[in-house]
Design brief:
Layout (H helix, E strand, L loop, with lengths): L2 H9 L5 E8 L2 H8 L1 H27 L5 E7 L2 E6 L5 H16 L3 E2 L6 E2 L3 E8 L4 H14 L4 E5 L8 H14 L4 E9 L4 E12 L5 E2 L1 H10 L3 H19 L3 E6 H5 L1 H14 L5 E6 L7 H12 L4 E7 L5 H7 L4 E4 L1 H4 L5 H16 L3 E4 L5 H9 L4 E3 L9 H4 L9
Parallel strand pairs: 6-7, 9-11, 11-12, 12-13, 13-14, 14-15, 15-16
Antiparallel strand pairs: 1-3, 1-6, 2-3, 4-5, 8-9, 8-16, 9-10
Length: about 400
Amino acid sequence: MSIQGQIYKFFNKNNVKTLFLIDILYMKDINAIYSFKNGDYIISQLRDLLKKTITRLINKQLKRKVLIELTNLHADVFSLKLYDDLTQDEINAIRKLIFKKIINYDFKLKKANTTINIDITIGCSKSKDNMLRVYTEKALHNAKLNGIHFMYYDANLYKNESVNETIIDILTYNINEKMVEPFFQAIMDNKTDKIIKYEALMRLFDREGNILSPYTFIFKAKKARLYHKLMEIMIDKIIDYITIHKKHISINLDYTDILNPKIKHSLISKINQNNIGKYLTIEILESEKISNYAIVNEFISSVKKYNVKIAIDDFGTGFSNYEYILNLNVDYIKIDGSLIKKIDEDIYLNLIKSIVLFSKEQKIKIVAEFVSELKILRYVKSIGIDYSQGYYIGKPEPIENIIGAKNEKRT
C-alpha cells in the first residue's frame, strides 16, 4: 500500500467501511481432482484478478477513487474492504461485477493445456466498528447455508447475539414512538423532464437515529407479525403529507396487505375522509403471488371510486406477468430494474420494447425503475417509456428535502 493509502486508511479507520468476503466453492473437490498445486495456482490467479482487474473496475463503477484493501483471509477466502459507506445500489452493482468477472474467468492449470471455471459465494456488510468482519462472515455463512451466491447483513441489526430480541426491540420502538417515516423517491415525466410524483419508501431508525436498511427489517417485521402496525403509521403519515403539501405519492402494498381487512378498510376510509384519492397511486408488489384476482379487483374497484391510480411493480421478472396484467384493471406498470439496468444489451432492449408495445396497446403507462445514469435515461426515452425513476432522477429523501424543491431537467 502506498504512503497516501496508509495516510487515508489512518484518517478513515473510524468511518463506515464496506466489506466483501469472496469464498471459492468446492475447493476441496478442485484439490482432489487437480491436486493441491493446481488449487494453490488457482488461488494465486484469483488474487491477481482481484488485485489487478476487479479493484480497478470497482473504482470505475463507483466513479470515484476508493481505497480498497485486499486480504487473503483463508486459503480460499478473500476479503475486499472498501473504505467507503456504499449505498445498497452500489453494493449490488459491485457484487454483480465481482461475481461476473470471477465465474467467467478461465483459470489455468499447471502442465495442462486446459482451463477451468470456479464458483463463488459472497457475503457483505458495512459498519464502522471492529465487528465488521464478524457481520460479513455471518452473511457469507448464511449465504452458503441457503445455497445462494450473495447475502448482505445490516450491521445495525446484528450487534449482539440476541438478534431476534434486538430486531423486535427496534420494531417495537419505531411503532411506539411512531418513528416509521416515508422517504420519497422522485418519478419524472420523460416528455417534460418534470418531477410529477414520488414513491414512498418505508424507513425505520435505531435508538441512535441511524436509518435501517429495508432489505432486512421488512422481512423480519412480517415474520414477527408487526408489519401491519408499521404500515398503518406509514399510511397515516403519507396521507398527512398529501393533505398538507398536495404532492402526488405512490404507496406500496403487497398481496397480503390487500387481503388484510384492517389495512384495507383503514386505507379506504382515510382516502375518503381526506379526499386525497386524485393524489394517490397504489403500487401492488409481488403481483405474481396473486391467487385470487376477484379479491384484488374488488379492492382496485373500491379505491378507484376515489380516483386512486393502480400500478404493478417489478414487471418483467416472472413468466405470468402478461396474464395478471390482463386480469387486473391497472393504470401503470413499472418495468423491473434488473431489466432496465441492462437496456443497452440487445436482448434486454428487445424484451423491454415488447413490454412497451404491449402496454401501449392496453393503454397502460410505463415507468422505468433503476434509471441510474444518463445513458440509461436516453435509452428509456428513445423507446417511448413514459416515466423514469432511479438514482439519476433522485434518491429517496425525507419530506423536508422535497417541499418546494424546484424541478430539474434531466437530458
